[in-house]
Each structure stands twice: as C-alpha cells, then as structure tokens.
Specification:
The complex is a heterodimer of chains A (566) and B (107). In chain A, 74% of the residues lie in helices and 0% in strands. By secondary structure, chain A is mostly helical. In chain A, helix 2 packs parallel to helix 16 and helix 9 packs antiparallel against helix 16. Classes of the chains: A mainly alpha (566), B mainly alpha (107). Chain A: Keywords: Cell inner membrane, Cell membrane, Ion transport, Membrane, Signal, Sodium, Sodium transport, Symport, Transmembrane, Transmembrane helix, Transport.
Chain lengths: 566, 107
C-alpha cells in the first residue's frame, strides 16, 4: 500500500497543485453522505446565487459581461488567489507533505514564483493596451485574423486541459467528500458554473472567487491556529514532533533504530521528488512562465481600471497565495503530528483512510469535529466551482470576442450579438465540460494541468512578450511562431514518459523529461524571431511601423479604455 | 481594436520625443528586467541546490530539527512576495508620479 501510494503520488506530481487531479490518484472510496458538509455547501451556493442574481441585474453590456464593470486591485488580487489556489493545492500539497515532508513545498514555491514574472514583464502593458482578452494585446498592431485565431485556439487548448483535470478531479473529490455519485457531482459543478457565468458574467465570477478565497484562507488559518496551539506555537516543536512520529512509524516497520531515525529526519530535507535536475528545472519553468500565459489569469487584468490597480492586484494575489502555501506547509506537518496514530484516520500501515489526499480533511476533523469537517469539505467544493467558472468565462470570451467579433465579423459585431454569442458559448462549454468529465473519468488526467501550464508558457507567453517588447515582431512571426511553440510543447509531452510510456505502453520515452518547457519555450521564442526576421511581406512593414505607437500606449495608458468604458 | 475617440497622434508624438518619457521608459524597463533576472536566478539556484546537494539542504540549523531546506523554502515564499512589493512600491510611487507629471505638462 505504501508503495502504491508513492507511485500514485509520483504519477500525480506533474499536475499537482492547481487542480483537483490529485484527488483522483489512489483508490477513491465513496463515503456515506455527509449532511453537515452538504448543508454548508448549500449555504455557499445560496450566497453565490444571490450574488449572481444581483450581478445579473447589472450585466447588460458586453463590457459588463467580460470585465464585471471594474473592481479594485485588492478585490482583484483576492479573486486571482481564488482562481489560482485550488482544492488540490489544499488537499494534494498537504497530503504530500504528510507523506514525504519538505518535497511538497517545492511545488508550492514553483506556483508562486510565476507571479513576479507576470508583474514585471506583462501586467501593466497588458492592462494599458487590452480591453477584454489577452488576444486584444497580442494582436494589437498585427493583422487581426491570424493572431486572434492563434490566441483563441491556444486559449481553448489551455483551458480544455485545465478544465478536464478540474472536472474529473471535482467528480472524484465530491464523491469522496459528500458521498454523491460521480455523474451527479459533475452535473452539479457544470450546471452551477454555467449559471454563474451565463447570468452574472465576470462580476459574478469575481465575487464567487473572492468569497471562496476568503473562506479557504479563513478555514486554513483556523486549522493552522489549532495545529500551532497544539505545539505551543513553536515551529521547532512542530518539526521535532513530526520527526519523532515518522521515526516511530519507521521503527514499527522493523528498521534498525539508526535507519529509523534517518528515515524520520528525511521529512526535513528534499526527498525523491527531484531526481533529475533537467526535469525539475523544466517543470519549474513551465510553472513560472506558464502563469504569465494562462488566459483566465490574464483576463483578470481587464477587471481593474488602470495599470496602477493591475500592479496592486498582483501584489495582493501574491500575498494571499504565498500565505496560503505557507499554511498548507504547516498543515501537512500538523497532520503528521496529530493524525498519524489515530485509527479513525489511518489504517494499520499508516495510509490515510478514504484515499491518499485526505490528510487535511482528517486534520479538520481532529481539530474542529464534524462541523468543521463539513465546512472544509464545502470550501473544497466551492474552490472547484470558482476555478471552473473563471476557465469557462475565458474560453467563452475567446470564442465570442476573438473568433466571432474580431475574425468573423472583422470587428464590427453588434455588442448585443456578441453578448448573445458569448452566452450561447457558455452553455455549450458547460455541456462540453460535463461530457469531458464523464469521458475522462477513468483516464489519468494528472498530467493535464502541467500540460496546460507548458502550453501557456510555450505559446501565449512568447507571443505576448515578443509583441509587447520587440519591434521586429510581425503578424506571421506571432501567429506561426506561437503555433510552433504550442505544438512543440504538445509534441514533446506526447513522446515523454507520462504519455509515451504510461498511456501508449512503449518501453522507452523518446523525450526523457517530465516537462517540455525548458525546450519548448525557447523554441517558441526562436520561431517567432526567425519567422519575423525572414518576413519581407508588405504587412510586416506595417507591423514594424506600428510598434512605436503601441509602445507609447502600453507604457503610458493614454488613448485606451478603462474597463467600464464601451 | 481602435478606441472610440480617435487617438491624438500629435500629442503622442510630443510625448514620445520628450526626454523625460525616454528616461522613464528606460529606467522602468531596466528595473523590471533586473528584478526578473533576480527572480529567475534565485529560483533556479534553489531548484539546483535541491537537485545537486540534498544532504546540505537536509542539515539542521543550530542543532535543532528545523533544516536549511525549510528555512530557505520559507525565505523563497517571503522573498517572492517581497520582490513584488518592491516593484509595486516603486512603480506606483516614483514612476507613476513621473508619468503623471509628464502627461500633465504635454496637453
């Protein structure tokens, strides 16, 4: 069982932290229906539907739908944290720390370190130039058709992989926490997400994410307070007791006292997660640069009035996300200390009851009883809803704003019609998400979030950076170079161990590393550069000539719109 | 994506050729690239330390249980937030003030 847990962990490590995929590794055992949790969750749904109804009355124009009419940097930072911290960061990272100690922190840091990159390189220019989608910015001075088509395809790909992982994770998690059948769970998630986005647009989505972020941070803070009061508010005591627990567990397996002590101490240092430095760096780069290319995160910049508030949003998002990961680290060690020997939470071999991502759930029960377990379960469900709503909104805007209004209608779409298209798209996406959730139920979706990050880092990120910062970039360079980055990330993932060996059953992977980003991101940049340099078309001359005006507007924010203007 | 009111191109040209604008863009760009480089180098070093010297990272600090790895990890979390704060403080402070003064003086 310990072996099984470990291999399941390794399998899931790629896509661990921002999605619920972690919940699907290992055996999923449906629980008896948890009524406290369901009541708490219904409370959350009630509040969010009320917010949606209020938002719906104020969502009349296309701008309302895409941007929510403007919020402050602080609110947007919380919403970004709500968009980014998922149920699986909460369940997956704490459980990984419960099992292996320090290693869980490596993921957490990777997910956080992308935010300064977004802030330094793209945030203010994005806000200054854009209106509704990141494609507004990527295609600003280019021929709209090719660049918008690339951006829309890339958005849909990134969002789809992210969404599949979320939906499958959601189904499994809800089955686990609430005792609801998988199909019902998927339909509840898909249906609610559709209602939020359809009626409330960005305003409702933002508030669902803000409410969820506050609930998650409060719940986790309370748990950490419980853990720390148990160890006299001393980290040294917490770590020492965790090491003692792990040593005792190792002794029980029949190891010599010296070996057991070494095993106990192992949780304080890096373990098996990073074996191969290239894979580790590549994975780190995917997380770091991918954050700056995730369409649903980039879209959040257009909800604030100016570059100033956009910067503040990121600072607040980083504060809350960093705080959240610090909490998960303490919770993981708290779980080692508080639940390791309790037969209500672990079996004889030391494995968690109810699936290997339940550490924080058991900890919640140990600290706050059934009511608090119910609250934390409801928070986990709310978390998934907030994430899928943001994803759906960004995919809907890619289709209605980039494909319909800009490519098909060449920019003269009636706003009312564009709004109708985005709403129809939302319904179709909701249905598609439910179907994908069912189709992929039994598949390994753990790699999909890391694939989404790698695609965003290799396609969107280079296109955005080159179009914003390099005057030589041309339409062809952006569209085709971006596509090459995207394809190389996708292709390398297919021939990497996670698909080539694990799915297709070949003996050796052609590409030996677990993440393509270290190679596909430079490939994307190089392709954009090469194609642009070779581009001698008349359009290329127009693209290059338009750079100074774009640069001026991106640096100053003059001659562009605020979020509420239309 | 054209704005609904036509951009004032003459004013844009005056701003673009103003030495204060050129200096502002140069300073801000240099600052943001410097912070980007720091972020990437620190993060890469952290991952490399983990990949290449696990025993060092596992060493306890001051004879206790808390290890170098845990302290460095915590420092990475705090440092990430801090570097964002430094940028926002400077960009929303002196850079924005210079930009506002510039835009005001060029009508």
């Amino acid at each position: 069982m310990a072996r099984l847990t470990r291999s399941a962990l390794l399998l899931a490590l790629l896509g661990w932290a921002t999605c619920a995929d972690a919940a699907i590794s290992g055996a999923v055992v449906a629980r008896s229906t948890n009524w406290t949790a369901i009541l708490m969750f219904l409370g959350f749904v009630g509040i969010t539907l009320w917010v949606t109804a209020a938002a719906a009355r104020r969502t009349r124009t296309i701008s309302d739908f895409y941007t929510g009419g403007g919020i402050t940097g602080f609110q947007n930072g919380l919403a970004m944290a709500g968009d980014y911290c998922s149920a699986a960061s909460f369940l997956g990272i704490t459980s990984q720390i419960f099992n292996d100690g320090f290693d869980g922190l490596i993921y957490a840091i990777g997910f956080l370190v992308g935010w300064p990159i977004v802030l330094f390189l793209v945030a203010e220019k994005l806000r200054n130039l854009g209106r509704f989608t990141f494609a507004d910015v990527a295609s600003y001075r280019f021929l709209q058709g090719p660049v918008r088509s690339f951006s829309a395809v890339s958005t849909l790909l990134v969002v789809s992989f992210y969404l599949i992982a979320q939906m499958v994770g959601a189904g499994q998690l809800i089955q686990l926490l609430f005792g609801l059948p998988y199909l019902y769970a998927i339909i509840v998630v898909g249906g609610l997400m559709m209602v939020y986005v359809l009626f409330g647009g960005m305003r409702a989505t933002s508030w669902v994410q803000i409410i969820k972020a506050v609930m998650l941070l409060c719940g986790a803070s309370f748990l950490v307070f419980g853990v720390m009061s148990h160890v006299g508010f001393s980290f040294e005591t917490l770590f020492a007791r965790a090491v003692a627990v792990k040593t005792k567990l190792a002794l029980e397996t029949g190891l010599s006292p010296a070996d057991a002590a070494a095993k106990g101490r192992a949780i304080m240092g890096p373990g098996g997660f990073i074996k191969d430095p290239i894979s580790a760096l590549s994975f780190g780069f995917a997380l770091m640069l991918g954050t700056a290319g995730l369409p649903h995160i980039l879209m959040r910049f257009f909800t604030v009035p100016d570059a100033r508030e956009a910067r503040k949003s990121i600072l607040w998002a980083t504060v809350w996300i960093g705080y959240f990961y610090a909490l998960t680290f303490i919770l993981g060690f708290g779980a080692i200390v508080l639940i390791s020997f309790n037969p209500a939470y672990v079996d004889g071999a030391g494995a968690l009851l109810g699936g290997n991502n339940m550490a924080v759930m058991h900890l919640a029960h140990a600290i706050g009883g059934n009511v608090f377990l119910g609250f934390i379960s409801a928070v986990a469900f709310a978390t998934i809803l907030a994430v899928v709503a943001g994803l759906t909104l960004s995919a809907a805007s890619a289709i209605s704003h980039d494909i319909y209004a800009s490519v098909i209608r060449k920019g003269d779409a009636e706003p009312a019609k564009e709004l109708r298209v985005s709403r129809i798209t939302t319904v179709l996406l909701g249905i598609a998400a439910i179907i994908l959730g069912v189709v992929f139920q039994k598949q390994n979706v753990a790699f999909m979030v890391s694939l989404a990050f790698a695609l965003a880092a290799s396609g969107n990120f280079p296109v955005l950076v080159m179009s914003l910062l390099w005057k030589g970039c041309t339409t062809k360079g952006a569209a085709w170079g971006g596509a090459i980055g995207l394809l190389s990330a996708f292709g390398l993932t297919v021939v990497s161990p996670v698909i080539w060996v694990a799915v297709f059953g070949f003996e050796h992977a052609i590409f030996p590393y677990s993440s393509p980003a270290l190679f596909s991101v430079p490939a994307g940049f190089f392709a954009i550069w090469l194609i642009s340099v070779l581009d001698r078309s008349p359009r290329a001359a127009i693209d290059r000539a338009a750079y100074p005006a774009q640069r001026l507007r991106s640096e100053t924010g003059i001659d562009v719109h605020g979020p509420a203007a239309h | 994506m054209a704005p609904s009111s036509p951009p004032d191109l003459a004013r844009e040209a005056r701003i673009a050729s103003d030495p204060r604008y050129v200096a502002l863009v140069r300073d801000r760009q240099r600052f943001s690239w410097m912070l980007t480089a720091i972020t990437v180098i620190v993060y890469t070093s952290f991952i490399s330390l983990i990949a290449f010297d696990k025993p060092l990272m596992a060493q306890p600090i001051a004879g206790g249980t808390t290890s170098i790895a845990v302290v460095l990890g915590a420092a990475m979390l705090v440092g990430t937030v801090a570097i964002c704060a430094v940028y926002v403080w400077r960009a929303n402070g002196s850079y924005d003030a210079r930009l506002a003064a510039l835009l005001e003086s060029i009508a």
